[in-house]
Amino acid sequence: MLSATLGLTQFGVNQVTLEPRFASSQRHWHVVEDEFVIILAGEVVLVTDAGETVLHAGMCAGFPAGRADGHRLINRSDSQAVYLEVGTRAADEEVLYSDIDMRARKEDGRFVYTRKSGEPYE
């Protein structure tokens, strides 16, 4: 995490390299934290409830906290894509996954993953 390396505590910054044919995550949205991405190299496909949008180097996207519109990035190209991911560092957070039965809650600084109902995975 770049923010930890630089001693930043108010927001998190990750430099992510997304390999060809890989996705950043499952589609998700944050209850508490804003999230922002800027593409540094290559291209990715942003997938949201509205559909798909190709993002090239220099383009960015933002995801306001509490907006129930899951998002993820997919690298459908034959080259690596590199982007910065920036987000708030809230003490408490909940992440909901749009397409699968999963949610994550930050407890004591760590995420605990459960079903959307709160039941643990067995």
From TrEMBL:
Keywords: Metal-binding. GO terms for molecular function: metal ion binding. InterPro entries: Cupin_2 (IPR013096), GPI/OXD (IPR051610), RmlC-like_jellyroll (IPR014710), RmlC_Cupin_sf (IPR011051). Residues 16-86 form the Cupin type-2 domain. CDD domains: cupin_SPO2919-like. This is Cupin domain protein. It comes from Methyloligella halotolerans.
